[in-house]
Amino acid sequence: MCSVHDTVEFEKRGIPATVIITENFRNAAAWQFRGKGMDAHPYIELPHPVSNLTPEEMREVTLRYVDQLVRQLTG
Predict the structure, then answer these.
(1) Angle 26-35/2-12 helices, nearest 10 degrees?
(2) Residues 6+ apart with CB under 8 A from 59
(3) What is the count of structural domains for the chain?
(4) What's the rounded Cα separation, in Å, for the pair 52 and 31?
(5) CA–CA separation, 11 vs 61, rounded Å?
(6) Range of 33's domain?
(7) Do residues 3 and 33 lie in contact, with contact meaning Cβ atoms separated by under 8 Å?
(8) How far is residue 50's CA from residue 72's CA, in Å, rounded to a whole number?
(9) Residue 57 CA to chain centroid, in angstroms?
(10) N or C: which end of the chain has fewer CB within 10 A?
């Protein structure tokens, strides 16, 4: 999961970052954050799967998480 690695590297540089995953990758993300010393780092978890959604459906799903994304990047 390169996105977890990238998030950790940004955070180490003082740049707020988060990762967006689907629920099926929850354990993998938690394990990798723990392994990088950032056990409690937040992430955004979308329902799984998203690959079969139409662009409009994906837009609807995405919009439900905008506030959470802003909180994680500015909190």
Answers:
(1) 40
(2) none
(3) 1
(4) 27
(5) 26
(6) 2-74
(7) no
(8) 22
(9) 19
(10) C
How many whole angstroms separate alpha carbon 61 and alpha carbon 10? 26
Q: Is 11 left (phi over 0), alpha (psi -120 to 50) or beta?
A: alpha
Q: How many CB atoms lie within 10 A of CB 29?
A: 20
Q: Which two tokens stand for residue 72?
A: 């994680």
Give me the sign of the Cα torsion angle 66, 62, 23, 13. Answer: negative
Integer CA distances (angstroms), 54 to 24, 32, 42, 58, in order: 20, 30, 27, 6
pTM, two decimal places: 0.86
Q: What is the pLDDT of residues 6-44, one digit of tens each?
A: 999 999 999 999 999 999 999 999 999 999 999 989 999
Task: At 49, list the tokens.
Answer: 């799967």
